[in-house]
Amino acid sequence: MTTTTLAVLVPLLPFLGAVAGLLLGRTAPGFVRPLAVLPPLTATAVAVVVAVRQGGGQAVDAATQLTPTGSVPIELALHLDGFAVLVAVLVGLVATCVQVYSTAYLRDDARYPSYAALVSLFTSAMLLVVYSGDLMVLLVGWEVMGICSYFLVGHYWETPEARAASLKAFLVTKLGDVPFLIGLFALAADTGSFRITKILAAVGHGGLDHPTLIALLLLAGVAGKSAQFPLHTWLPDAMAGPTPVSALIHAATMVAAGIYFVARLLPVFAASGAALVVLAVMAAVTMTGSGLAALAQDDIKRVLAYSTIGQLGYMAGALAVGDRGAAVFHLLSHGAFKAVLFLAAGVVIHAAGTNSLAAMSRMGGLAKRIPDACWTMTLALLALAAIPPFAGFFSKEAVLVAAEHTAFGDRDAAPAAAGWTVLVAGLLAALLTAAYATRLWLLAFRGRGTTAPDHGRQPAAMTSVLWILAVPTLGFGLTAGVLGDWFDGHSLSPSLATAVLSTGVGLIGGLVTYGAWRHTTALAPRPPVGAVAAHPRAEPALVEAEAITSHTAAYGTIAGAPDPTDPGRLLLGPLHRHAVTGFHLDALCTALFVRPVQAGARLVHFLDREVVETYVRGSGGAARGLGALVRRAQTGNVQTYLGALLGGTLVLAIAAVVLANVYAGA
């Protein structure tokens, strides 16, 4: 088979698996799990073959126009460059691991067949975005992902949290998609095509008439999809969905789509220096704000959610300084270790019976109960904190090196202001990242109190994928000097200055957090005996919805009590109460947008009920009254009818005489 034929199979196989899973979910449930795992597994193998054949060399392009669509044609096109083939491998690998993990995690869930089919469709849509060479075809995958996320985040629809989170994710991302769609049309109008290669060629020859406007419109959609400030608030709330869904959204799909889109069309954004500065500021606020918020969260999944927002800020920062190689390199590295973090968090949640770090901190021996999750999560947290030689160190250093070169004028791909903004924010975010990563590990695995309840050995389907994804977490960063051909042909190796500076900052953040934890632990009283001994969720079934709804069901009031050993409270001080709410951005959006819209809706409802309906009711009442009068006149008496006729004739005659005299006198 040719490379293009194989590339077509990559998104097609998960799509066919989703269709087959939906059709056979009720009639042949025994086929559901094979149909969930085998298509993405095969697609991953095919994606690896495509990547090897492409080899990081010249991009492979193919297109066919099925039907004319007017002055700007829409084509089924493929554009396979080094970025596309590597991202496709990541998507396939993470999706396969998520499907394998889900076979055990949701084995007792009655809605597993529809869940597995939606995950396959989600995967297919992301692969379509990755391989597409036409922006309209890319938009199809972009929107299908939004629909799938709505259903997957709301999987536990019985809980109000899941229902609200799914609706919020859908509405916020659609809010960004409206200007995004307008930007796509404006881009096509300026360049005369939706084909990525033709657009880039037109941009290279100065073919954009409104570069800043187009770039800012497109950035609105990217901010919504990739959870950048100020459209990031949906992502922490999306943790109400199943943990495997969180891993898929955060590691390889949905949030990665916006970053990948900007990387693919970076010359469009680079045509406007103002747009790059806006992107840099957006990335800087996202990085630092999410780091502070993560340091205050009690839910383990919300900590990881804010962590994802921050790492996406690093990727956006790399794009803001004009280095898409560093951005995609960090996207790939982050995809591996973030998938480990979320999937390991699912094991931790099952073993602890709660999402609450405060409850876990009152629980001893949790690390010994789940050694696979503990070790792999430790490796992934070290990668997240950018400690060498883990993958996160190399990819984060690539971002900081790019920002350094731009800030000092060694690269003119972006304004120096963008470089300084990203560099300073990146170093501050490195400090915060190491701090909240250390805090999470200490509270989850160094708890003090009664020994955690033993649920037995975790299923192999859950633990095996943790070790599979731990391999790229450990070794992918070492390929920075080998995969240069896949990343625009330039080296992504770290420089000595930024490596020492950022690693030192990270170590300071980790050590300060550890010191704060030791201090608070020494001052805090030991938990009462038996505080967490009773555990009603010892059964092997994984019903995460219980933990989403409330921690009190498992641990009583102690689960919701503030943790006196939490170092985040000491480090943040009075800022903690603001950081724990995400700096009240949801409340601000409610005050500025939600309440005015609701007030407008109430006003329209009032006008419709009291004004418009009044006229409707009045016209109906008048017609009924007139009908009643006419009905009274219909007596059926002939004498009455003749009398009325003669009377009417007399009145008309008198009126005619009077009017004639009036006109004659005039």
From TrEMBL:
It comes from the Bacteria. GO terms for biological process: ATP synthesis coupled electron transport; electron transport coupled proton transport. It is a multi-pass membrane protein. Its EC number is 1.6.5.-. Residues 68-115 form the NADH-Ubiquinone oxidoreductase (complex I) chain 5 N-terminal domain. The chain crosses the membrane at residues 6-24, 36-56, 76-100, 112-131, 137-157, 169-187, 199-224, 245-263, 269-296, 303-321, 327-352, 373-394, 414-444, 465-484, 496-517, 641-664. This is NADH-quinone oxidoreductase subunit L. Residues 132-403 form the NADH:quinone oxidoreductase/Mrp antiporter transmembrane domain. It is found in: Endomembrane system; Membrane.
